[in-house]
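Fig. S4 source data, part A: sequence.
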Amino acid sequence: MPLTRRDFLISGSLSLAAGAFSPLVVGAEKTKPNTPADFKDWESVRREFELAPGYVHLALFFLASHPRPVRQAIEHYREKIDSNPLIAVDTAIFEAGNENIPLQICRAIASYIGGDPQDIALTQNTTTGLALLYHGLPLREGDEILTTTHDHYVHHESIRLATGRCGATWRKIPLFDSYDSISPDEIAQRVRKAIGPKTRAVGVTWVHSSSGVRLPIARIAWDATRLRPAPTNGCSGPAAPGSFGQSPEFGRKCAR
């Protein structure tokens, strides 16, 4: 059964939450009624977080407050570690059973995007992932990587450093001229037209954290694979998982 956006957010967050906890929050959580949030009611969703109400929190894409289910998961893992540290950590990290947290995460992500868990690599952050991706490309002198003017600094730096060490080049293009006139068709067309005979990889960001713009990533990937020679498609997507639902077929199109 395909993993839904809500299930992905809950299961993935619960697994990743094992590394941090607060005893004060733990005590408060145990005294609160465990009533499920109504996701159709924004106030109900807001009450899942312990954010200070006197502030407008606009930096949660950088440092996020945990919702109640995640706080409860943190407490669950804290109790397991306190009860038997060796068994709790060894089982969650090194054994191949269903308690292995990295394996659970890989399976959840693969189900969400329509891929194989064996093809999922877990990194500490987006910067590390982008560096591994671009420095792992078999680039040669004269090759080119195509990206956009809208991408993040660390995306550009990963490409710059990877191309600089082997004599390859890189190029940035705008995907649109104004936020008032964004067209999915025009975005895909601009990428397709910018791909040249020396282009070996195309790097874009699925969801732009600075604006919320979501690229037609499946269309871009599909168009690129129809070219000969077909470039490698690189997609930076840290803000994408959980932001909206996609089917396994969507993931298979992107993978192709």
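Fig. S4 source data, part B ends here. The longest strand covers residues 199-205.
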